[in-house]
Specification:
Structural class: alpha+beta
Distance between the termini: 45 Å
Helix content: 25-40%
Number of strands: 16
Largest sheet: 8 strands, mixed
Strand order of the largest sheet: 3-2-8-9-10-11-1-12
Number of domains: 2
Order of helices and strands: EHEEEEHEEEHHEHEEHEHHHHEEEEHHH
Number of helices: 13
Strand content: 15-25%
Length: about 375
């Protein structure tokens, strides 16, 4: 299907059409002084005219000069919170031994506004949770019914480094519909690319017009130009090897002196997937439940084995997270675990910058540049 143009009214039709198809539409909206992901009842809830200013340990809303609805970089949440919920019930059991599994979540999600970095993160979760030797059935069910409306970035944020990770600013494969927002003297509109037959079918229900060749070219050029305006970049190095060779670097202790081991970076990361289970009972002891919740390798008990934790120091826990994310993830899953969204930098209370730390470790004597 050829590229189409959808106007601002048509974006509202898109949300309505998705809801009419039985999807629960999730997209960005303004709440609590941030752009967060939430269920949308209409396109009017999108953050029209809002952008963000970010820096290490800093995130602020700002008013834009136009009414763009996707003119902002990543917020504190990722789409992972819907595909791989931070807490979910597994089963319950009573004193007589009656076992009742938790009800399956049959929600059909439609994600509106997925950036290239987050689309790449979903692809990573597909490999980790959906296609591993022991796949997560709960994740697979949510992912199977997912409808994705991606957004190409034309205005990267101050902390974005998706270009150096090969994940943006153009949204890669995996979307049903892909949008490039245009808000200028010619009006507010979206250049729409179709990624799947499912996307084409839905687009056929909306008010659209064919895109002129100039409109398509201008949109493509703006996305390509954004690649050269990233606020950060990961160093051009063989990071898995460099990190391995720098395992005795004093940099681990230096960064640990600033790290609070709070786990914020793992909480906002769109690819961190670790979980643990906990059992809870009522006061009578007649009823018990098992819940799965997100876990972080920054927790002291994360490496608890046979009466003690393996990684007791902050430096060892930071090294575990960093080495896995940028190093051994390649061996396990065939890619880096980082997609360049910059969330871990923005939401680190002390402003630790993963790109700066990677550059220091890559330059460690004896490392492999």
């Amino acid at each position: 299907m050829e590229t189409q143009i959808l106007d601002r009214t048509g974006l509202g039709e898109l949300v309505d059409a998705l809801r009419g198809e039985g999807y629960r539409v999730i997209g960005p909206t303004v709440r609590d002084n941030a752009i967060v992901l939430a269920e949308l009842d209409s396109a009017e809830q999108l953050p029209a005219g809002w952008g963000v200013t970010t820096a290490p340990g800093r995130y602020r809303l700002r008013r834009r000069d136009d009414e763009a609805v996707f003119g902002h970089s990543s917020g504190p949440q990722s789409w992972k919170s819907y595909l791989h919920p931070p807490r979910r019930k597994l089963f319950e059991v009573n004193r007589t031994g009656e076992f009742t599994p938790a009800e399956e979540d049959d929600t059909r999600y439609a994600f509106l506004g997925v950036r290239g970095c987050d689309l790449a993160a979903i692809a990573i979760l597909d490999r980790v949770l959906g296609a591993a030797a022991h796949p997560d059935g709960s994740y697979q069910r949510r992912r199977r019914e997912l409808f994705v409306v991606a957004v190409n970035c034309t205005e990267p944020g101050e902390l974005c480094f998706c270009t150096s990770m090969g994940t943006g600013p153009a949204a890669g494969p995996g979307y049903d519909l892909g949008l490039t927002e245009r808000a200028d003297g010619d009006g507010h509109r979206f250049v729409v690319d179709v990624g799947t037959p499912k996307g084409a079918q839905l687009l056929g229900k909306l008010t659209v017009r064919p895109a002129a060749s100039g409109e398509v070219l201008s949109a493509r050029e703006d996305v390509a130009a954004a690649a050269g305006r990233m606020g950060r970049a990961m160093p051009e190095a063989d990071l898995p090897t460099a990190i391995r060779d720098a395992r005795e670097s004093p940099q681990w202790e230096e960064v640990a002196s600033r790290c609070l081991t709070c786990g914020n970076c793992t909480m906002v990361c769109p690819t961190c997937f670790c979980t643990t289970t906990e059992d809870v009972t009522d006061l009578t002891g007649d009823h018990a439940e098992r819940w799965q919740r997100s876990a972080s390798c920054f927790e002291l008990d994360f490496s608890y084995v046979h009466g003690g934790s393996v990684r007791t120091s902050g430096s060892s826990r930071y090294r575990q997270w960093f080495s896995h994310k940028l190093g051994t993830w390649h061996e396990q899953f065939g890619s880096s675990g980082c997609v360049g969204c910059g969330r871990c930098i923005a939401w680190c209370p002390t402003g630790i910058d993963i790109t700066e730390e990677a550059a220091k470790l890559a330059a460690y004597p004896g490392g492999t540049p």
